[in-house]
From TrEMBL:
Sodium-dependent multivitamin transporter that mediates the electrogenic transport of pantothenate, biotin, lipoate and iodide. Functions as a Na(+)-coupled substrate symporter where the stoichiometry of Na(+):substrate is 2:1, creating an electrochemical Na(+) gradient used as driving force for substrate uptake. Required for biotin and pantothenate uptake in the intestine across the brush border membrane. Plays a role in the maintenance of intestinal mucosa integrity, by providing the gut mucosa with biotin. It comes from the Eukaryota. This is Sodium-dependent multivitamin transporter. It comes from Cyprinus carpio. It is found in: Apical cell membrane. Keywords: Biotin, Cell membrane, Glycoprotein, Ion transport, Membrane, Sodium, Sodium transport, Symport, Transmembrane, Transmembrane helix, Transport. One of its GO terms (molecular function) is vitamin transmembrane transporter activity. One of its GO terms (cellular component) is apical plasma membrane.
Amino acid sequence: MGDVVQMHFSTVDYVIFVVLLVASAGIGLYYAFSGGRQRTTQEFLLADRSMRCLPVSLSLLATFQSAVAILGAPSEIYTHGTQYWFLGCSYFLGLLIPAHIFIPVFYRLRLSSAYQYLELRFSKSVRICGTMTFIFQMVIYMGVVLYAPALALNAVTGFDLWGAVLAIGLVCTLYTALGGLKAVIWTDVFQTIVMFAGQLAVIIVGTHQAGGIAEVWRKAQNGSRISGLDLNPDPLERHTFWTLGVGGIFLMLALYGVNQAQVQRYLCSRTEKEAIMSCYAVFPCQQIVLTLGCLMGLVMYARYGEESPLDQGYVKSNDQMVLYFVMDVLRDLPGLPGLFVACLFSGALSTISSAFNSLATVTMEDLIKPHVRPMTEARATLLSKMLALAYGLVCLAMAYIASLMGSVLQAALSIFGMVGGPLLGLFCLGMFFPWANSTGALVGLASGLVMAFWIGIGSFVSRMSASTNQKATNLIQALYSLSYMWYSAHNSATVVVVGLLVSFLTGPWKEKDLNPGTIYPVLGNLLFFLPERYREKLCCVTPLEDNVSHLNSTKQNPVSNTAFLLPL
């Protein structure tokens, strides 16, 4: 294994790393000075609704395939075995439901921001609360995503920590603020290819050095790293088939169903059909990404066995282990470590740029436009660019705060589950339950967020305290021990249940009083066996097509001062 030494980059590695940054910035500048030159908010924030299926699907994939996942998944497999792979079972429903329920509703309403939906369905106050929750979620997540790869890189190669953070943060801010959503999507496509190339290089070389794939598998089996199907229904177990395959669906829905970064991708597609196809195309790509992460973890195990670099003292945390392994495997192949680091930072760039763009969009559409007098396109576009720039600087500040946090993959996913869950619950409450009113929505969202942070912070504190190994003795301790994969499901269910209870107590709404097109008749479809008159009393029965055609024919515009009904 050699001495405990820091491994260093060769000149070729630095060149490859710089080429990634320059190419990303170049794509941004190209879209800043070509085509419509980002002169309208429609082009800057929604790419003129002109994107095709392939770039959109790769961008959807790249947005949450961040450096956190590239570093986290292999070390998870190395430490705990292949159980994590069952997360792939959740992708099927986790992408099918957005494709056939959320996309049709959002696309047909011709929205610019997902949170416009909340005003159409509930009220302006619900929209503002939803927007603020999303901003909070993404700002925290951005910090983790930017800081994680820089820290690992610094620990393993001595690459300047804050130099890397600043380089990534500033390049990202530059091309997002200049090139708008088109630049973000096309850089995502480029960065996805770099991500695949980097991971493949490591797996191929590592497998070759370990003596072939059969040898890797044999060693993993001997070390009991190949997990069978664990059907233990206990929700307190960290990873079982149920926590990953079922709990994961809710995490996927929070990401691919209602997160503005992804909804914006759907809305920038040429047609609704292309938006749905791009969601379908993500499915095989997600499976490939997950499989690559698992393979890398197994190759790591074949190389180190039980003597992990962490136990040997070569690295300080799980997140650094993958980079140490990469530098160890590729040390005699100049250029390839640089390719992997480029792959890692591609993950960070694609996630952060999407965050900047979606944050600029919601701030503009949900917080500024409805509350100021109408402004010219040029002024609105300039303001959107300034917002993207401002969020870039906020992200750098958050990276500093993230430097004070602990283990990365779980922290990022927990924040997503903690805040993404209540937001998912809020959209489900509005879309599936016609009786829900705006009071119910506000109280539901608040209780979901309180529950989320109570469990999230409680579990963190109880892990830190000495009594971590005792089995849950009471309900509160059991809640704290809940698997982090169930956070999204638990918190979204809280919002729906509380929201419905409050709505019934304060006077439920009727379907005919609501804006057409804001309800998806899921209950009407599920209860198809009941007579029509009972279904009408119980739930929504109007098909979505009828609702939206009615909306477009009457040209109602309940959202003041926003680009609600854009020219069809």
